[in-house]
């Protein structure tokens, strides 16, 4: 192979891995899924889409330099937390030089934390590295620049959205969006990789949205999908651990009050912490009573939450 062909091959492979890293935000090791996720992000903000690309590329690059497991790198495992850091900082902070420096450092750190978590944690840590790194970045930047560096929060809709729009916005909020079109593109991306996971994601957002309506939560927050995204992720995560619809719905239900807890009680953005904690709670119940994890036919299914049933493309 000549030098040009070799460079083309490296560039193509690298592009696929970066896209898989973005797709792994919702448990899918599929480059086509990552591309649809990017399309959804770009609909809301091309700058945020760029943040996701940079984050995934940096996280993956760190994994390559530090010689992490090649198969895990190829599947995008070291891209998704870093991609989330990249897009979150550009959603929450103005795109000033300090923000870009934090993005690079945060994406790199998220890759390292992901590796340490996979090595030493006896349970799946999901997006916990993203949450911890982003919280740390916000504390640091506010200590230096104060709140003036924050972006202006998107206003709540003047009129309540339809139920379907709120559910789809819940899908979009997984990557800090708040519109139904990005949410629809995200669901399409998941379905491209694994249609069952798309159904679980939709069920989770429906459960979270219904629960928030029942509790009379602010209609503006419901319309923005703030109660659907953690529920959507939790439903998928538990399905990957145990193929139980009941347990997936339980995890979705548990995530909703946690979504309110972080900003109200602690004064920090919830990000995906409610999904992580809700999933841990259900996994802890499974550890205490393995019978809960059995499927209808009596066979217990165990699967890594970071390695979904989807062909790697």
From TrEMBL:
Q: Name one Pfam family in it.
A: UT
User: Where are its TM segments located?
Assistant: 6-23, 35-64, 76-93, 100-117, 123-145, 185-207, 227-254, 266-288
Family under the similarity heading: Belongs to the urea transporter family.
Give the main location: membrane
The keyword Methyltransferase is annotated on this UniProt entry: no
Taxonomy, top ranks, is: Bacteria, Pseudomonadati, Planctomycetota, Planctomycetia, Isosphaerales
Q: What membrane topology is given?
A: Multi-pass membrane protein
Q: Which keywords does this chain's UniProt record carry?
A: Cell membrane, Membrane, Transmembrane, Transmembrane helix
State the InterPro entries in the record: Ammonium/urea_transptr (IPR029020), Urea_transporter (IPR004937)
User: Where is this chain's protein located in or outside the cell?
Assistant: Cell membrane
Site location (Important for channel permeability):
272
A single Gene Ontology CC annotation of this entry is: plasma membrane
- A Gene Ontology molecular-function term? urea transmembrane transporter activity
The protein depicted here goes by the name: Urea transporter
């Amino acid at each position: 192979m000549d030098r040009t062909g070799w460079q083309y091959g490296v560039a193509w492979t690298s592009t696929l891995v970066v896209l898989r890293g973005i797709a792994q935000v919702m448990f899918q090791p599929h480059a086509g899924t990552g591309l649809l996720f990017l399309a959804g992000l770009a609909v809301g903000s091309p700058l945020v889409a760029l943040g996701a690309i940079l984050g995934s590329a940096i996280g993956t690059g760190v994994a390559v330099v530090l010689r992490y497991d090649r198969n895990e790198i190829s599947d995008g495992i070291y891209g998704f937390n870093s991609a989330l850091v990249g897009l979150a900082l550009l959603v929450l902070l103005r795109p000033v030089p300090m923000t870009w420096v934090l993005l690079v450092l945060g994406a790199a750190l998220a890759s390292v934390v992901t590796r340490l978590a996979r090595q030493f944690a006896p349970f799946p840590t999901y997006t916990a590295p993203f949450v911890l790194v982003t919280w740390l970045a916000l504390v640091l930047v506010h200590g230096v620049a104060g709140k003036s560096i924050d972006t202006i929060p998107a206003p709540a809709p003047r009129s309540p959205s339809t139920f379907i729009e709120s559910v789809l916005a819940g899908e979009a909020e997984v990557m800090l969006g708040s519109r139904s079109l990005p949410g629809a593109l995200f669901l399409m991306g998941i379905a491209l990789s694994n249609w069952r996971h798309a159904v679980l994601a939709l069920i989770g957002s429906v459960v979270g949205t219904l629960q928030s309506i029942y509790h009379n939560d602010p209609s503006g927050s419901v319309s923005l999908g703030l109660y659907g995204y953690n529920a959507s992720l939790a439903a998928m995560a538990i399905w990957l651990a145990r193929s139980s619809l009941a347990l997936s719905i339980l995890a979705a239900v548990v995530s909703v009050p946690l979504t309110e807890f972080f900003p109200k009680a602690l004064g920090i953005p919830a990000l995906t912490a409610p999904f992580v904690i809700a999933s841990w709670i259900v996994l802890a119940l499974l550890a205490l009573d393995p019978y809960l994890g059995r499927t209808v036919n009596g066979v217990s299914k165990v699967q890594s939450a970071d390695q979904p049933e989807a062909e790697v493309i």
